[in-house]
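Many introductory courses stop at the sequence. We go one step further.
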Amino acid sequence: MQATEKKKSNRGALIGAAFLMATSAIGPGFLTQTATFTGSLKDSFGFVILISLIMSAIAQLNIWRVLCSSGLRGQDVANKLVMGLGYFLAALIALGGLAFNIGNVGGGALGFNALLGLDQTLGCILAGLLAIVIFLFKKAKSIVDQVVKYLGAVMIVVILVVMFLTQPPVGSALKNTFIPSAEMGNLFPAILTLLGGTVGGYITFAGAHRLIDAGVVGKDKLKEVNRSSVMGIGIAAVVRVLLFLAVLGVVTKFAGINLSNPALNEGIEGLTEYNGISNPAAYAFKAGAGDIAYRFAGLVILAAAITSIIGAAYTSVSFLKTFHPSIAKNENWWIIGFIAVSTLIMTILGGAAKLLVLAGAVNGLILPISLGVCLVASKNKKIMGEDYKHPTWLLVLGIIVVLVSAYVGVTSLGNLANLF
């Protein structure tokens, strides 16, 4: 009886870890990044999705395997490898989490604007306060988690409606997924951003740490861990592809449309009036399926933003706990402070849509370091145990991802500056 209950508990943890990773990835940044890059790269964005999906799966399989086999969190693995390296990694991930959280607060403002027409400053303040209130009441957070699942289902339905109405060129998208027509140099910033938004920074650690907390550790659990990891990547990939096709249909239907700057779209036949706020994902839905779809998009962006604010703050502070015992002792206040600082910075800076794209890129720059640490640790017997063997094919592919993501990150820095 106990064995059966434990098996059910493990299954719940494995599914929970997959969805935690996927929902961490499918935030307002996910929606904004996909719409922004589909608008600029058109059909060739399919190639970016394919490459980032392959690289994300390789990175996550390596990281989850090392962490769950050793039973150690990311920063603890790094500290065992080289004393002090874990603190450096924790600081990097907390910094990347702050970048993401600033963008998430901005995403909340975009959601409030599309849903209720609120201006960005008020939207930012309300999003930050709402996240703090929900965090303080744990039952409220579980209710929000349930609501977001339903809203996610609504978003997929709306995506399918937009696809049906705009009829994207699926054949051309499929062709460009394997043979892109855009120049490779123009694809690099998008690849870096999608990598960061899917497995960069704190996101890939969120699911693995969830499994460690649930006791799903050890070499005998690797098959289930791998399955959970692939499931998380798969959920995010399906939503990304559907959203790409829906937005591509809008871009194809309205030739010359600019999703990032609606003010440039005056005179395009068939487009309804827009308030001029840069909100690429919501704008694509409005152009493709009208005002109701726009309001639904705002509601889902808002819900995704609130849960992402809480998730990013919680996971980032979990890495900061490595620095001093007082952080662990006052964890709740640190999380509230993290959200408050993110809200203040976003309120001052503005430019939510651009910051959401930039946050993904910043976390993409962290990926080569976090993955590199796990790859080196996979060959360390003191960390992994004498009987652990890391698959050679996975190690080789992981090294390739480290090199490629590092190269893409460095070469993309100049293009990312163009966002501003």
